[in-house]
Amino acid sequence: MKIYIILLVTILFSNTVIGQEKNPAEESTPSTKSFSLSENKHKFFFYWGYNRSNYAKSDITWKGPGYNFTLSDAEATDLNQSGFGPNYYNPLLFTIPQFDIRIGFFLNDKYAIGAGWDHMKYRTKEGSTAVFSGSVDPNVSQEYSAYKDGDIVTIDNSYLRMEHSDGLNVLNFNIERHDLLHSLWSEKVGLKLVSGLGFGVAMPWTNSITFGVRNDDRPHFSGVGAHIFVAPEFVFYKRFFVRTTLQGGMVSMWDIAITPKSDKSDTHAEQTIWYLERSLVVGYRFYIFAPKS
Prior knowledge:
This protein has helices spanning about 1-20, 140-145; strands at about 45-55, 60-65, 65-75, 75, 100-105, 110-125, 130-135, 150-155, 160, 165-185, 190-200, 210, 215, 225-235, 240-255, 270-285. The protein contains 2 helices and 16 strands.
């Protein structure tokens, strides 16, 4: 046992001496690496912020036992109508507002990849009109069975509603290009232009009502999404940044959950949503491992 202890102490002492003999100039660690706005390779970044969205008119199709119909040119809004409130500042309620979150990695000085979550919200607009087509059995709905193709329907969200209020969630991947437009004070402050595109899967948490029956809202894989974006970005203290993004995209969903969990029928909704999202996020850049010189 004494021999093992002596050997261990010897190894530890040897490593300490070797470490002291290394030239610090030859080592590069994340904490000592010079931080530059124009040199980004191997940096990581993280950001968090909030968004608002506008939606183009869309066609929504409901399919189930006794009905197969579409409301065309349906209008919708996001759900942030009251502006900023306590939910935005309470970390325990962070999923309630409409938010964007992402972590990414720079492949080189200009290009980065990232994985994130766009949490938008969507609800058909109360009192708006849409064009009916299809058929509904009178046993399912007396009101909607009376409509014929081309009839105008007034949206009553208490009776027939499409709402992704717990999130029109898109889990996606981005490819980003970063261009440094201007910098000051040895690149401590700078203005960048970030642009790129992304794609991912739609996981809406749908809170719909179909002929007065509310579904059990739960996250559900429903389709795919894609987007393009452009974002001016202000960088300060080299590592921190504020980014405001204009993003246009689409979410194509062919299997939206619209029934209670106990309903095992082939009942679902279909919809393609085109949107324009504006977001404001704050973020931080950092090294996890030292880049090779």
